[in-house]
Each structure stands twice: as structure tokens, then as C-alpha cells.
Amino acid sequence: MTKKQKKTLLRIAVTAGMLVVLELLPWEALPWGGVWRLVGYLAAYLLIGYDILRKAWRGICSRRVFDENFLMAVATVGAFGLAVYTHSGDYLEGVAVMLFYQIGEWFQSWAVGRSRKNISQLMDIRPDYANVERDGVLERVDPDTVAVGTVIVVQPGEKIPIDGIVEEGASTINTAALTGESLPRTAKVGDEVISGCVNMTGVLKLRTTKAFGESTVSKILDLVENASSRKSRSEDFISRFARVYTPAVCYSALALAVLPPVISLLLGAEAGWGVWLYRALTFLVASCPCALVISIPLSFFAGIGGASREGVLVKGSSYLEGLSKVRRVAFDKTGTLTEGVFEVNAIHHSPLAEEQLLEVAALAESASSHPISKSIRKACGKEPDRSRVADIEEIGGNGVTAVVDGVPVAVGNDKLMERLGIVYKPCHHVGTIVHVAVDGQYAGHILISDRVKPSAKEAVAALKRAGVEKTIMLTGDARAVAEQVAGELGVDQVYAQLLPGDKVEKVEALLEEPGGRLAFVGDGVNDAPVLSRADIGIAMGAMGSDAAIEAADVVLMDDDPMKISRALEISRKCLRVVYENIVFAIGVKLACLALVALGVTGMWAAVFADVGVMILAILNAIRCLRP
């Protein structure tokens, strides 16, 4: 509980105690009892309501009159004025209205604080320091000052401050804060580890691969901190509703106070100014739209916090709302449905020795960061000597050309061979085929395969159970490979051999088709334009490129495709809660206003209706914390 919450709770308790004492005192027996009674209740009123009165006055001065503070100030001051005017001495109602309103406000503050707890827990992943070894001594430095390529030491129990590759040591790391995954992962020499995880057992020496500002932990914190700035359509609806609703009820209350007495006078009857003024004040109290104004943003905030606990980072409530309406999901293949871990399985139709062909291909691919290029370099068994390579040109969706030892070399797919006019031999095995040409002559091809993720098949099935009507695969891979993977996983439709530009065109065509919102799931640099173009872009956060994470609307922190259906479930629950609160709050509010205007209920009922609806709506909203 914050200091402000404690202070408000103390004010509520003291005011409630004062009201009990003030009600029990025998005012009639005291000299100037009526005056002291007014002073006592006025003191209780100012204690509990001074901040509301101050906010109302500031709103009037800044010409933002019609808000809940203005409504409460007018209603309660009016109730006091009415009691003084009628000499009834019934000041309890004005103080009680403000007291119950403050109880509702405190409850709202508590609920927001509870939903923020998830976000603050996520903020705990921010590392405070990095250990750099200098002259045999570990020195703690600011992570911002650590350059790329620096070797840092992470001891047991410490957070990994910057993304890097393990150069020495082995350990288990806890990724729960990032991915929601309870089981620790093992890290050994050569493994990539991401910042924000906790090193549990052994000492690790990492060579940093990114600056702190570009590392995973910084990206996540930036996403979460800025999530609330992107409002959903439901939140915009509430803002527009409040701008129209609040002036409308204020003018309606004024009409209720003036028109009936005037009409009565014109008809020759008693005006009854006090009765209608009391009804107008009660109408103002009952009209306060607190339940809507508070519970809707709170529902989205809680939904984003609950999703973060599951390892699903949503960049804003507008994307959470959009995610709930997804009915079609398109996937990239490599790194999304497959592990993106390629292995050389065979070499066919080559007049060169296998080692020689692999060396030539590895040299040509030496500047590429593509997983297939990495697999060729790994199969070669040694780091390529870049001094032997010149004039490297990467042709998107085709492959690379280069000059190796003064000889032109081309390494790529069928399209590259056709582009260069080289006759190649097709492969009847299923896998990624990388053709190699040396000095304009075909030199054989390399068969490379990728492993399907263990959870991919169940992930596709879970999406269909979650209401996704169509699954689609968009890949630059060969048709035979794409169709085999799609058949194995149960994907409905396949588009293969697509260049990055082709993927964008295909997504645009899919967006034109009927069938509901389209989400695209990808992880690579070439997926960034597609992620931006789809209705909802979902990026794999652990393996995904920075460009993909930046372009996406939703980030899955552990690259598990099962989290896609989980994200849909969380978003739909959140939207269901939002709609429940909108219907419930507006329905009860309109009914209460009608009863007040007709004189069926009084101020107390209006207060209980207002605060009661707000508390029930808040309780419903915080259900989103538990996805």
C-alpha cells in the first residue's frame, strides 16, 4: 500500500469515526447546538472531501468543468446548502456521499496498484550492474557503459545484464521473468543467452553481442512502459461518451431543478423548489460515470499485466483489443513453426569433394546472417577466411554471389540458378536445396533440413480450438518442403517460394479477402514489413530479430507457438470483461437516474448505486490479472 493510499484510508477511518460521534451527541441540549452541529459536520466534510473540492475548482479554472469531481462537489455542497436552507440539520447525507465516493476511489487505487504489481515485477528484471574482469578483479560497472564484444562475468544469483554468447562455464538460467516459463534452461559454451534472466548455478563468462540499450531487457521494458499510451477503441469510446454524457446530465439536473417548479407555478400549484432541488442534486450524484471511466482502462491495464506474466508482451490496449478479433493466422515457417536450426544432411551431384564444395559455399556465405548460411559454415568445420572473398552480393530470396580465390561463385536456390542461366539438377529429397555454381558451371547442391518445433502441431490445433478459422503458411522455402511441414502440422493453406516483397503482397491480398482479422507470426528481419502490414503482428522475441520485434504489435518471449493461442484467450477474456462492465454500468446507471428523477429513490440509494457499481466493475476488471 502506498503512502497516499494509507493517508486516504486514515482520512476515511477518522471521518467515519467523527460521523458516529456527531450523530450521538445531544446537540439540542448544548448552547448554540445548531451552529456547533454545522461546524462539526463541515469539519468532517472538509477532511474527507478537500482534495475533491480542490480538483473541482482547478477544473473550473481551466474550463474543464464537467468531470466527476465537479459532480461530487456540486452535489455535496448542494446537500449542505439544502440542509441549511430548510433548517433540517441533516448534514449527514452530504458528508456520507463524499465518504462513500472516497471509499470507491480508494478501492480503485488499490485495484490499479494490484494490476501494476505485475508490471513492477517485470521491471525487476532491469539489471543494476555488469561485472567486468580487470587485472584479475571483478569490477561492477553501469551496463550502459559496456561495449559490444566485451567479456562480462555473471555469478550465481545475478541477473544477466546484456545479451551475449557463453564463452566459458555452464549453468542453469531462470527465464520466468521474461517468458513465464517455470523450468530453468541450461546454458553452455556457444549458447546465446538474453538479458533479464537470472543465473542460478554456475559462473558464466559472456561475450556481449549487443549494447545495453539494444538488448532484450531494454526492449521489453520500453515496450511495457509505453503500452498504456496506445488506447483501444473501447477506451476511446469511454472518452467520447464521457465528453457527451457529463454535460448532458448536468443540464438535465438543472432542468429537473427548475422546470417542474416553474410548470407548477404556471398551473397555480405549489412550486416545491426544495423537493426538486433535492432530486436534481441526487440526480447529479447518481449520474457520476466512475464505473465506466475507471474500470475500462483498468481492465486493459490488468490484461496487459496478466499477459506479461505469461510471457506475452502486448504493446498497447488497442492491440489487445485487435488480438481478440483475430480469425486468421498466417505463419512464417523458419524460426516460427520450425526451430530455425538447419543441418547439412547430404551433398548431391558434385564433381568436387564434399569438403571442397562446403568450403567454397561457406566462403561465399561468410557475410550472411541467415540460418542456412550459418549451417553451411558450421558443416564446413572452420571459420571462413574472409580475405579470400570479394564482391559479395546478397540477392533477396535468391542467394549470394561472390568471388572466391578470384573465381565467381554463386550459392542459392533454383531462382538464382535460373537468373544466372546455369543449368541445375533438381533434388527429389525433401529439404532446403542450396545449389552451388563455380565459374559459371554447376557444382552440385547441398541438402539442408530444419526441425519442426515440438509444440508446433499442438499450437496449430490450439488455435483452431480458440476460434481461428484458417491457418496459413507464408515461406520463401521450396514448395515440397513447405507442403510437407504444413501437412505434418495441419496448416490449412501454403504459399511457398515467396520473396519478402511477395509476402507483403500476399498478406495484402489476404487482408482484402473476407474472413476476419489477420495476424501474422514471424521472427526474421525480412518479416518486419509483413508484421507491420498485418492487422496484428506477432514476433518471436527470443530468436526474433530486432526489426521484427520493433515492427510487431505482440511479442512472444520464449518463441513457443503455443503462446499464440494463449494470447488470443487472454485478449478475449479481457474484452469480455470490458463489455460486461460497459453494459452493466450503463444499464444500472440509466435505471438509477430514472428512479431518482421520479422521486422513487433518494440520495443514499444514489450513493450506494454509484459506489456499488464502481466496486463491482473494478472487481470484475481485476479478473484480467489472472489470465
Write structural notes for this entry.
With 627 residues, this protein is α+β, with helices and mostly antiparallel strands. The chain folds into 4 domains: 3-120 and 229-301 and 574-625, no CATH class; 147-210, Distorted Sandwich (Calcium-transporting ATPase, cytoplasmic transduction domain A), CATH 2.70.150; 317-337 and 453-552, Rossmann fold (3-Layer(aba) Sandwich), CATH 3.40.50.1000; 339-451, Calcium-transporting ATPase, cytoplasmic domain N (3-Layer(aba) Sandwich), CATH 3.40.1110. The protein is 51% helix and 18% strand. It is built from 20 helices and 22 strands. The strands form 4 sheets. A 7-stranded mixed sheet has the order 10-22-21-20-11-18-19, sandwiched between helices. A hairpin with a 2-residue loop joins strand 14 and strand 15 (407-412). Helix 9 runs parallel beside helix 20 (603-621) and helix 10 crosses helix 19. It is elongated, with a radius of gyration of 33 Å. It starts with a helix and ends in a 6-residue tail after the last helix. Residues 227-231 have low confidence and may be disordered.
Keywords:
627 residues; alpha+beta; Calcium-transporting ATPase, cytoplasmic transduction domain A; Rossmann fold; 4 domains; seven-stranded mixed beta sheet; six-stranded antiparallel beta sheet; 20 helices; 51% helix
